[in-house]
What we know:
- By secondary structure, the protein is an all-alpha fold.
- Helices cover 67% and strands 0% of the residues.
- It has nine helices and no strands.
- The longest helix has 27 residues, at 78-104.
Amino acid sequence: MNNFFPTILLVIVFQSLCDSSITIEMAGLPTIDNTGLVNIGNISDFREKVEKMISYKIDKEHDLKDFVHLELEGKLNEDTLKKLINLYIKKFIKISQKYFHDIRHLKPMLIKLIWSWAHQRNREDSLVLMWANIEPGKEEIFVREFTPTLKVFYTFLLDIDILLEDIMHSCPKSYARYLECKKLVEEKHQHNG
């Protein structure tokens, strides 16, 4: 099966906009969904990794959101902030690296999808739009350059999560098939093991 949307990394939406899914209105997306070419499994997998990263407790006490609050309150020194940002960026690059290659050949379609998404979310100034236009192989440089604070990085991850959720919501047939297959695999593992 062709991996039409192996994963998509990108987008910045304020948390207040994250309360509900949207259906991404883009010519071709419903048609793609009907073909089964949308690899919702990869999108779901990457989204799960992003969510785990957001809630990951580095010191068994604080997750990324906690560190953002500490950063905003001025309770983290500059050295600690640099170490935390570097740690989170390295972790993000590590979990997303396998998707970069797949994304590169989809850039023309992704750019249209992300523009549509950003417009519907009122985020035409999103960093994700910049991300979509960077040269292949420069993803890590972009993240390091444009997410200089924990707050910006946290927002970046939340936006990726929302974008992926909206894509899944916009492809109901593929997502339903994925959930059915996932359930069958889980039942098989329970039965065999």
